[in-house]
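User:
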Amino acid sequence: FRVLIFFVRHVNCAVSMVVYEGYVSRQYFAAGKGASLCNVLGQLIVLVLPFVVVFAAGALWVKEGSFRAQPDVSWPKKALLVVRDARSEALHPQTVAWTSMAKANGFLGPALTTPHLEFRAQDADGDGRTDAFHFDLRIPLPEPFRVTAVELLLLFRYKVEGDVRLEMEAPCYVHHSSAAPGRRWETEGVLQVRQTQPLFWESVRSNHSYFTPEAVHGMGDILLPRLLQKYMGRNLTTAYRESMAYWSPSGAASTMDEFRMSVTVNVPSEEYTYLRGPWEVLKFAWMQYFTVAYPVTWIVWQVKGVLVKGGIVATRVVSESQPKYKY
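Assistant: Predicted structure:
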């Protein structure tokens, strides 16, 4: 009898133990027009409200984009140099010049000088792209000549690989003038991009150069003001922004047979704006829409739950769905 009581007690304990658990979701159906209207209104809010919010914020059809990239810049040994003497005596030469093009040098006549130029490119971070260019020039001068102004136009090959592929000839105009004659000039700055309109979303390739043997037919084609006007008139161009300069005076009465100049051009990362392609516009619009639609859907679902469970709208339970088992 005691054994039987012990066995019955253990069976009762086993019966009261949780050996299996399942969750049942209850389905509520509309029992009147109010519940149906509430359901339709919730779906409209989920579909329309995110569109209205994103459109009002101006983030739906964003046609312009931007990206930052380090340009790949090289110097194809194209340059134009002008050194001036501001004295007004007609017997003294007032300008000497030089270009990297033999055909253009033929138009300079007695104003031609031949500088000694040393050039080196620096890749500071070892990424395969040049970060700085260093130019050292020693310019022979006729007698008597006192330098009061110097101009140097460097033409670089400029490439960008990013959301837009870009290739162009980039000008770098470096200049300085002083009332006191000088014997040496040092300058350092950065090559900056100047953009007036966004680039097209496809590749942009502009190899057109205004300083080639085919484009030079006379002295007027190598004048610095005319060349600069052509380069600066483009949608996308470059300019030199000076950050440091030093002019070493030579004295008002002294003349020299040589002028020295040192130029350092740094190439930083730049930001470029462009027009997005149609697929990119749609992708960005969908991302913005989904960002707003997700929290709106959650809020609408919670509000519907309060209305249904609180009995504010008339509903009826049609059936219990199949349980979702949990082991």
